[in-house]
Amino acid sequence: MSQDLDSDVPGSENPDVGQDANLLRAARRINSELHRHSHRPMMLSQQARDRLTELHADYLADLAQEAIRTARRGGVQTVDEFHVEQASSRLGLSQTSGALETTANTLGGVFAGAGIAFAYELVFTAGPHSTTKIATAFIMSIVGFVLLSIGITTTWSRRSRAG
Questions:
Q1: Rounded CA gap, 112 and 65, in Å?
Q2: How many CB atoms are closer than 10 A to CB 160?
Q3: Enclosing domain of residue 25
Q4: Are both 63 and 37 inside the same structural domain?
Q5: pLDDT tens, residue by residue, 96-125
Q6: Can you state the angle between helices 81-90 and 131-162, rounded to 10 degrees?
Q7: Are residues 114 and 158 in the same domain?
Q8: CA spacing 20 to 30 A to 44: which of 96, 104, 106, 148?
Q9: Among 76-85, 88-97, 136-145, whose mean pLDDT is lowest?
Q10: Are both 79 and 107 inside the same structural domain?
């Protein structure tokens, strides 16, 4: 039988007494995922639980160190929530860590590359070329470079705000 993860969180038997609400919330999210398919519930092995605990401590230390460095670069004495958010973004584990820029850069690269390949073919092959082929090369290149511009600008602005 599977053991609930939140049973190991101190105070989880009584949420009002001596428990960390964030750890309890994380444990409940993990349990929810483990039991998402009621016909086939899963469980974490003790080794997996131990490793999650180790990685949690490592991530917390890395996050705190990066937040401290971010605050230090800003010339302040106190690490604020803003510094922690920036550190999370820099470590790449923020939930909003660049989905737009990743998508724009990826699609932009594909479209721009295909457009340039078409243009290369138009320039270096003999014979008449159809208007459709010329328009395709032009449109794909423009769309690709616009998407790359959006992705690069988004990345640049996010990093410049980070300090």
A1: 39
A2: 8
A3: 1-44
A4: no
A5: 546 788 889 899 999 999 999 999 999 999
A6: 140
A7: yes
A8: 96
A9: 88-97
A10: no
